[in-house]
Design goal:
CATH superfamily of the largest domain in chain B: P-loop containing nucleotide triphosphate hydrolases
Shape of chain B: globular
Structural class of chain A: mainly alpha
Largest interface: A-B, 48 and 60 residues
Distance between the termini of chain B: 30 Å
Strand content of chain A: under 5%
Structural class of chain B: alpha/beta
Largest sheet of chain B: 6 strands, mixed
Strand order of the largest sheet of chain B: 6-7-8-3-9-10
CATH topology of the largest domain in chain B: Rossmann fold
Radius of gyration of chain B: 22 Å
Helix content of chain A: over 70%
Order of helices and strands of chain A: HHHHHHHHHHHH
Number of helices of chain A: 12
Oligomer: heterodimer
Strand content of chain B: 25-35%
Order of helices and strands of chain B: EEEHEEHEHHHEHEHEEHEHEEHE
Helix content of chain B: 25-40%
Number of helices of chain B: 10
Shape of chain A: globular
C-alpha cells in the first residue's frame, strides 16, 4: 500500500466512464423548486407504484363530480342559476379532508419515516427551505383539486348560458372569490395536513391524526356544547367543527345569508346550513377560525423543524 | 489547502463527551476513520456536514468553516449515512436523479449523471425498479450513487459495509477503492472493522471515547504490525515456547500463534521449529490485519450519546 495522501489533480478525466462535473450548480431556488416539484408529484402518487395513485384519482373524481353534475343540470334545464359556487366548497370539504389525510403523510412523513430527510439536510438545503418546499407542494396539490372544478364551473356557466358573452361580462368578477377562496381553503387543508403529519412518526399515524382532526374536533365541540350552560356561549362551539367552519367560510366568501330551506339538500348542505343559522354567528368568525388555524399549523411546523436535525 | 482541519473540536451531550478536543489536519486521499461504536465517528461526520454544532472548536472543510457556512460545505460533500435513507416507492433512477438536482444540477445533467453513477455502482440493469424491492446490498449501492452523483470533492461514507454479507462487503470496498483512487475524489470512510479500513485506505484516523488516538499514513502503521499468523491443529504451547526461546515475540491466539515479523530470519526459525517438532500446521499467513494491536481493545460497555449513533 502506498502513501498517496498528496493532493490529487482535481478535474482529471479518467477513462472509466466517470466524468467530473464542471457545469453550473444552481442555488437555493433551484433546490426548493426541485423538492417542491418532487413532493407535488408524490402528493398525486406520480412516479410511484400504481397503488399510490388510487386515492388521489378517486378524490379527483369525487371533487369534480359536484361541478359536473351542476353543469349537467344547468345545461339540461337551461337554468344557470343552478350553478352555485358558494355550495361547492362545503360539498367537497369531506373529500379534501380525505385527500389531506391520505396524501399529506406521503409529502412530509415519508421523508422522516425512511430517513430521506437526513439526506436532504446533508445537501445545501436548510430546514426552512425544506418546509417551504413542502408547503408549496401541498398547497399546490390542494389548489389543483379545488381550483380545477370551480374553474370548470365558471366556464361551464358561461358556455351553457343563452348569451355566453353577457354571462362572461356579468360573472367574471366571480373569479376573484374563486381564486382567493380556493387559495385560503387549500392553505387551511394543506397546513393542517402537514402540521399534523410533522408530528407523526409514520404515515399511518399521520393519516389517523388528520382524520381525527376532522372527526374528533366536532366531538370536542359536542362535549363543550353539553358542558356549557349558557346558550349564548354554547353557539361558539360550532367553530370547533372543521366542516362547519368551511361552510361558514364559503358563506362569508360569497356573502350568503340564505335561510336553510333555500339550500339544496345535497352533500349534507342543508344540515350544515341549519346548524350555522342556529348558531347565528357572523360569517367572518369562520374566516378568522380558518386563518387562525393556518397560523397555528405554521407555528407547529416552525417549532417542529427549528433544529437542523430532525 | 488541506481537505479538512479540525481545531480542538469538542462535543458534549448531557453526561457524555462525544468528542474531546479533537485536533486534526487531513490531506485529500482515502482516509479511514476507525473506532468502536460510540467512539464519536458519526458525531464527527455530522459536525463536518454542519448538521451538528460542536460545543467548542472549529472545523474547516476545504477551507470553508463548516459551522458558519454549512450550506457551502455541503455543496462539496457527498454523504452516505449509516442508517436507512432511501424511499421505498421510487425507482433508483428517479431518486438518484432527484438527489442530483437537489445538489444544484440542471435536470438533464442530473438524469445523465444518475444513469452514469448507477452504472458505476453496478445497478444499470435494475435502475428502473422501485428501491423497496432491492436487497440490502443494492440499497447500499444506491446510497453510494446518490452521494456520488453530483461529483463531490469529498465523500463521507459512514459504515458503508454495514449489514452486508462478506461478498457484499468485498464489492462495496472495491467500489470505494475505485472511487477514491481512480476518480480522484477524497473519501472519509468510517468502519469499526480495521481490516476494511486497511484494505481501502491510505491514511488512518483512530478515535476512541471521543479522543484522537492515532492519525497517520496506513503503510507506516502496518509495517510495525506485521505478523505471521500460524494456525495449528494441536496444542501450540510447546511450539510457542520453542519460538520464544529463539528470541521471537510470540502471542497465543484462539487456535494458534501470532509471531511478530522482524526480518526474513523469522520465517527460517518458524520453518526449522516446525520441522523439529513435526508440528501440525493447518495454515500460515502474513497478517497485516492487526492495526488494532496498536490500540486498546474496543470499549463496548459505555453508553452511546443520544443521537450520536
Amino acid at each position: 500500500m502506498t502513501d498517496t495522501t498528496a493532493p490529487r489533480a482535481a478535474g482529471t478525466i479518467y477513462d472509466l466512464g466517470y466524468q467530473h462535473y464542471e457545469g453550473p450548480r444552481y442555488g437555493r431556488w433551484h433546490v426548493i423548486r426541485t423538492l417542491a416539484a418532487f413532493s407535488f408529484r408524490a402528493a398525486f402518487g406520480r412516479g410511484r407504484g400504481g397503488k399510490a395513485q388510487v386515492i388521489p384519482y378517486i378524490v379527483m373524481a369525487l371533487v369534480f363530480l359536484p361541478a359536473i353534475v351542476q353543469i349537467g343540470i344547468a345545461s339540461a334545464t337551461g337554468q344557470t342559476s343552478m350553478i352555485n359556487y358558494a355550495s361547492y366548497l362545503p360539498s367537497v370539504t369531506f373529500f379534501l379532508a380525505l385527500f389531506a389525510a391520505a396524501q399529506a403523510p406521503e409529502v412530509i412523513v415519508a421523508d422522516r419515516q425512511y430517513g430521506v430527510l437526513s439526506l436532504y439536510l446533508s445537501r445545501s438545503l436548510s430546514t426552512v427551505d425544506y418546509v417551504a418546499a413542502k408547503l408549496i407542494a401541498f398547497v399546490g396539490a390542494m389548489l389543483a383539486i379545488t381550483l380545477g372544478p370551480q374553474i370548470l364551473l365558471f366556464f361551464g356557466k358561461i358556455i351553457v348560458s343563452a348569451d355566453p358573452w353577457a354571462m362572461f361580462t356579468s360573472t367574471y368578477k366571480d373569479l376573484w372569490p374563486i381564486l382567493g377562496g380556493t387559495f385560503v381553503a387549500s392553505c387551511y387543508m394543506a397546513f393542517v395536513g402537514l402540521a399534523l403529519g410533522s408530528l407523526a412518526a409514520r404515515r399511518a399515524y399521520a393519516s389517523a391524526s388528520v382524520i381525527a382532526f376532522f372527526v374528533f374536533m366536532p366531538a370536542i365541540g359536542g362535549i363543550a356544547n353539553s358542558i356549557i350552560q349558557n346558550p349564548d356561549d354554547r353557539r361558539y362551539t360550532i367553530l370547533a367543527q372543521p366542516f362547519m367552519v368551511m361552510t361558514g367560510f364559503a358563506n362569508w366568501l360569497w356573502d350568503v345569508h340564505t335561510s336553510p330551506r333555500q339550500v339544496p339538500n345535497q352533500f349534507g348542505a342543508r344540515g350544515a346550513a341549519r346548524a350555522l343559522s342556529r348558531a347565528g354567528l357572523p360569517n367572518e368568525y369562520y374566516l378568522y377560525v380558518v386563518l387562525g388555524t393556518c397560523v397555528v399549523a405554521l407555528l407547529i411546523l416552525a417549532l417542529r423543524y427549528r433544529k437542523t436535525e430532525v | 489547502m488541506p481537505l479538512l482541519s479540525a481545531a480542538a473540536v469538542t462535543k458534549r451531550y448531557p453526561g457524555v463527551t462525544a468528542l474531546d478536543s479533537l485536533t486534526l489536519e487531513l490531506n485529500p486521499g482515502v482516509i479511514g476513520l476507525v473506532g468502536a461504536n460510540g467512539a464519536g465517528k458519526s458525531t464527527f461526520i455530522r459536525i463536518l456536514l454542519g448538521l451538528l454544532a460542536p460545543t467548542s472548536g472549529t472545523v474547516e472543510v476545504l477551507g470553508i468553516n463548516a459551522l458558519t457556512h454549512p450550506l457551502e460545505v455541503r455543496k462539496l460533500i457527498g454523504y452516505l449515512p449509516e442508517h436507512d435513507c432511501l424511499p421505498i416507492d421510487v425507482s433508483a433512477a428517479d431518486f438518484v436523479t432527484h438527489m442530483g438536482r437537489m445538489s444544484g444540477l440542471p435536470a438533464s445533467t442530473a438524469r445523465e449523471r444518475a444513469a452514469e453513477t448507477l452504472r458505476h455502482v453496478g445497478l444499470h440493469e435494475e435502475r428502473y425498479r422501485l428501491i423497496g424491492s432491492y436487497s440490502t446490498g443494492m440499497k447500499q449501492r444506491v446510497k453510494l450513487a446518490q452521494a456520488l452523483t453530483h461529483d463531490p470533492k469529498l465523500l463521507l461514507l459512514d459504515e458503508p459495509t454495514n449489514g452486508l454479507d462478506p461478498e457484499g462487503r468485498e464489492e462495496m470496498l472495491g467500489l470505494v477503492e475505485r472511487t477514491g483512487r481512480e476518480f480522484g475524489i477524497a473519501i472519509i470512510i468510517t468502519s469499526h472493522l480495521l481490516g476494511e479500513i486497511e484494505r481501502v485506505c491510505d491514511y488512518l484516523v483512530a478515535i476512541e471515547l471521543g479522543k484522537l488516538q492515532h492519525a497517520g499514513a496506513l503503510s507506516k502503521l502496518t509495517e510495525r504490525t506485521a505478523f505471521v499468523r500460524i494456525e495449528l491443529d494441536d496444542d501450540a504451547a510447546a511450539f510457542a515456547d520453542r519460538l520464544r526461546a529463539a528470541g521471537l515475540d510470540v502471542q497465543s491466539i484462539e487456535n494458534g500463534l501470532l509471531v511478530a515479523l522482524t526480518d526474513d530470519r523469522t520465517y527460517d526459525i518458524i520453518r526449522d521449529t516446525a520441522a523439529d517438532l513435526d508440528a501440525p500446521i493447518a495454515r500460515m499467513e502474513l497478517d497485516r490485519h492487526h492495526v488494532g494491536e496498536l490500540f486498546r481493545p474496543p470499549a463496548s460497555d459505555f453508553r452511546q450519546p443520544a443521537g450520536a449513533a
